[in-house]
Please model this.
Amino acid sequence: MENGIKLYVVVPCYNEEAVLPETSKRMLALFDEMKKGSLISAGSRIVFVDDGSKDKTWDIINSLAKQHTEIAGIKLAHNAGHQNALYGGLMTVKDECDCAISIDADLQDDINVIPQMVKHFTEGYDVVYGVRNKRDTDTFFKRTTAVAFYKLMHLMGVNIIFNHADYRLMSKRALGALAEFPERNMFLRGMVPLVGYRSTSVYYDRNERFAGESKYPLKKMLSFAFDGITSFSISPIRMISALGAVVCIISVIMAVYALVEKLLGNTGAGWASLMMSIWFIGGVQLLSVGLIGEYIGKLYKEVKRRPRYIIEAYVNEENGNDV
Model:
C-alpha cells in the first residue's frame, strides 16, 4: 500500500496558454514536497481539463503529460463552461482518488494551503473550503458587488460560504454524493454545502493573476450570480408576488382617491400622473414576466437532460497517450 493520500488536483482551463507552464511548475514542486513528507502518495495526479480552448492550451497539456507522470489531461469536445468543466474533471477522477482538490489555473488561489487541506482530510473532514481572508486584489466595483452577492444569497436562504469560490477539497464519498445531484444548471458553490458531510475551511490571501486575462468579465459575473440565485432560491418569485400585492393595494387606494376627487370637483388633466402610473405598472409587469421566464428556461434545460459535457480526449498519466 502506498504511503500518503492519493490526491488529484483538478484544474479547469480555458485559453490558459500563458499561465500553464508556470502553474504546472509550481504544482509539481508542491507535489514533490508533499510526497517527501509522505502526505500524498506517488499515485497523486494533477489533472488539467481543457474546456474547449481556442489557443494552444491542449497542446501544452498534452506535452506536459508526456513529460511528467504526475500530470494528466482531459479535453472536452466543446466549451461547456467553467462549472461543467470543473464538474466533469471531478466526476472523471472520483473513483481513482482518496480526495480531489479543485482550483483555477490562474495562480490567484494560494496553492501553499493545499497541505493544510489534505491534513484536515486526514482528520476526518470530507469537505475543506478555501476561503479568502480579504479582497484587496479586487477592484472596488468587483469587491462591492461580490460582497453584495454573498449577502443577497444568504438573505434568500442559500447556504453558501462567504468569500469562497471553487477552491476546495472533497473526499471520495463527498464526490460520490455530488454525483447524485441531477441538475444541469451547475452552481457548485451552492451544491457542495448541500452534500452535508463534515466540513471546515482554510484561509489564504489571494494573489494577482500571474498572466493572461480574467475569464470572468462583468457580463459573465452578472450571469453567474443570476444563475446562482435562480438555481437555489425561489425568493425572487415570492418578492414579485409581494410587489404585486403592494401595487394592487396602492391601486385601490389611488382609485378611491381619484373617485373622491372627482366627486369634489378637484380633478385636473392628470396627464403626468397617468403616464407615470402606466410606465410603472408596465415596467413591473415586464420585469416579472422576464424573471418568471428565467425559471421556466431553467426547467426547459433540465427536462431535456442533455449531457453536461462530452470528453473528446484523455491524456493518460501513465504513458502520455490519447485514449
Observations:
- The mean pLDDT is 79.
- The longest helix spans residues 271-304.
- The chain has two domains: 7-215+307-315, 235-304.
- The beta strands are 7-13, 45-50, 71-76, 99-102, 127-132, 164-171, 199-204, 311-315.
